[in-house]
Write a structure and sequence with these properties.
This protein is mainly beta and 114 residues long. The protein has one domain (4-100): OB fold (Dihydrolipoamide Acetyltransferase, E2P) (Beta Barrel). It contains one helix and nine strands; from the N terminus they run H-E-E-E-E-E-E-E-E-E. Strands 3-2-1-4-7 form a five-stranded antiparallel β-sheet, with no helix packed on it. A two-stranded antiparallel ribbon has the order 5-6. A hairpin with a 2-residue loop joins strand 5 and strand 6 (83-85). The radius of gyration is 14 Å and the shape is globular. The two termini are 20 Å apart. The mean pLDDT is 92.
Length: 114
Amino acid sequence: MINIDEFKKVEIKAGEILSVEVIEGSEKLLKLSVDFGEERPRQVVSGIRKYFEDLPAQAGLHPLVGVKCAFVTNLEPRPLMGLVSEAMILAVHTDSSFSLLRVSPDTPLGASAS
């Protein structure tokens, strides 16, 4: 268990997924480019690929492009498959279900959880 002071250290912000790429050589990972309203988008490497393999791309776009989700943005950057991940997307799952923690489309980029 963590106490409330430790939890307050976690920075959760709204970000919009700008692009999605499959990481060759990995069955689990996707490389996301995410806009948090900062100077440049951040690269986020996430193990969510299997949940989106059966969704068809529309007009050449991955179904996650344009989606706004909650991300932890103050984790130390972490290398995965030779790529540096600069945040972590938040999701919940069971053996039979998966859901990203989406935010309302009108939420400003970079809005913080409180």
